[in-house]
Amino acid sequence: MDTFIAYVRLPDGGGDWHAEFPDLPGCTATGNTLDAVIDAARNALTIHIAELVAQRRPVPRPRDAADMMIAVNEDPALARRVVGAVLTPVVRRPASAMAARTGLPLSGERRVA
């Protein structure tokens, strides 16, 4: 299974927790607790990768924590987004498990009632 690093943070002033995957632009999640945002991030990661595969687009190789910290030091825009965040490894769920859990079909699969 793939493990991607998410930056997880609680916005200043409270509100929902927020997670983003720098290796997968646009792949984000929110939750009202740390556990909820990590679960939502796992779901978002699974769906995002499934969509990339369905569109026959390459899935980026996930960076490890050391490479991610180097990237933060070299990219001021990324550094601003991760202030106050923690690095959280998130393992994506197998697409079949996600489909079974949500009742949604896998990309390209048709469910017959």
What report would you give on this structure?
It holds the Pfam family HicB_lk_antitox. It comes from Tepidamorphus gemmatus. This is Putative RNase H-like HicB family nuclease. The chain is of the alpha+beta class. It has one domain (3-102): Double Stranded RNA Binding Domain (2-Layer Sandwich). 40% of the residues lie in helices and 19% in strands. It is built from 4 helices and 4 strands, in the order βββαααβα. The chain has helices at 34-54, 65-74, 76-81, 95-102; strands spanning 3-9, 17-20, 28-31, 86-91. A 4-stranded antiparallel sheet has the order 3-2-1-4, covered by helices on one side. It starts with a strand and ends in an 11-residue tail after the last helix. The model is unreliable at 104-113 (pLDDT under 50).
Q: Major sheet: size, sense and barrel closure?
A: 4 strands, antiparallel
Q: What spatial order of strands do you see in the largest sheet?
A: 3-2-1-4
Name of the CATH class = Alpha Beta
Q: Decide which structural class fits the backbone.
A: alpha+beta
What is this entry, summarized?
This is Putative RNase H-like HicB family nuclease. By secondary structure, the protein is an alpha+beta fold.
What is the element layout, followed by pairings?
Elements: E1 3-9, E2 17-20, E3 28-31, H1 34-54, H2 65-74, H3 76-81, E4 86-91, H4 95-102
Antiparallel strand pairs: 1-2, 1-4, 2-3
Give keywords.
113 residues, alpha+beta, Double Stranded RNA Binding Domain, four-stranded antiparallel beta sheet, 4 helices, 19% strand, globular, disordered C terminus
